[in-house]
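Summary for the lay section of the report: proteins are chains of building blocks that fold into shapes. Here we show the chain for AraC family transcriptional regulator and then a coded description of the shape we predicted for it.
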Amino acid sequence: MPIENIPEIYITDNNKNPDLFVYDFKMPHDVVKSKVNLGMNMFSFLQIGKKQVHFAGTSVAVNKDQSLLLKKGNWLWTELLDTEANYYCKLFFFSENKLTDFLSKYTNNVKPYKEDVPYFVIENDDYLASFINSISSNTFENNSYSDALLVLKFEEIMLYLLNKYGNQFEYYLRSLISKEVSPFKITVESNIHSNLKLEEIAFLCNMSLSTFKRHFTNEYKEPPGKWLQDKRLKKAKELLQGGDLKASDIYLDIGYNNLSNFSVAFKNKFGISPTDISK
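The coded shape description reads as follows.
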């Protein structure tokens, strides 16, 4: 039986590697098993049918009154239990970057939580039913605001489940972060697009500025000032290419104290002024 790599097999544009991705999954009744390599963390919102998911050393069964949050990186078998009906669910994939951004934005617990269970069972209710009906792969295709909408839907479901399950859900979310991702990297990368200075990011990492710089260079093989500037300028370029914002709208958020310094840095990086891009 072949191994299916998801969500890769669902992404039609090979040049895209989305941080958030929705897919409407349908399986006919004559297909009862599949072997899957899960490449991203994933919500599985079951709407028709039943299934049992087998992991190494454990398994879980769910019906249409339940949903699952599955941890990436697991080889798993899925088995359709009700073979008299088709199986239909909506899959919502999210990257580790989006997860760390969310946890940094909305939660205070900075300690990684170790948990070996590769799934979290969600009991559906009226709110979740409404949410599930609001997401579809068709909704987010050929839409200039698709990325922004997906971020809002991701934060909506995460915040609702935090409210519904409290610390239990937060602890599970933290267990989804790869063990090799240190608290230091989580803090740094969740503040890439903030306007915080190096001294302020160092403070959040509980380090002096000099220690922060040494640790950063060892971790990223590049000085923090240059690394952050490159990331922020690339973000600025993306915002300006959207056509809705001007340089004067974004320079503070990108970490510059004045428009002139931002314009000079932008032109040195890309060979064109920010005003020419946003025209």
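Put simply, here is one thing we learned. The longest helix spans residues 146-165.
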